[in-house]
Design goal:
Belongs to the ATPase g subunit family. The chain is about 75% helix and about 0% strand. The protein is mostly helical and about 120 residues long. The chain folds into three domains: about 35 residues, no CATH class; about 45 residues; about 35 residues. It is flat and about 65 Å long. It starts with a helix and ends in a 10-residue tail after the last helix.
């Protein structure tokens, strides 16, 4: 156990040295590549204004998203009413969607338990 801790500390020290040497250059390169996304002047006030713009833009998009939701729901209801005419492809897509939802649920449960697969280990 102590040897693993020493190995971890050595790797952390190597990573720190690498970031110390190359971090500034990487930061400058990243900003240069993405300068079209930087709002001038880069101040706290600008950040607050952008945060408000994002908030109210998302708020304004709610009616469009609810309309899309109701259209999707009507589509599903219509498919359920005409389920006798349902094609195998549509049933397969629905089954895959259900399996994907179940898999995400299982992944969330595993993550919520601290990445344990069964039971609780203190």
């Amino acid at each position: 156990m102590a040897s693993k801790l020493q190995q971890l500390q050595a790797r952390a020290a190597q990573a720190t040295q690498f970031v110390t040497k190359h971090g500034n250059a990487y930061y400058k390169q990243l900003l240069e590549q993405n300068k079209q996304y930087v709002k001038d002047p880069p101040t706290v006030e600008t950040c607050n204004e952008l945060a408000k713009q994002l908030w109210y833009t998302r708020l304004a998009s709610i009616p469009g998203r609810t309309e899309s939701f109701w259209k999707e729901l009507d589509y599903v209801k219509n498919m359920w009413r005409h389920r006798k005419e349902l094609k195998v492809e549509d049933a397969g897509i629905a089954a895959l969607f259900g399996i994907e939802c179940w898999a995400w649920y299982c992944a969330g449960e595993i993550i919520g338990r601290g990445f344990t697969f069964t039971g609780y280990y203190p």
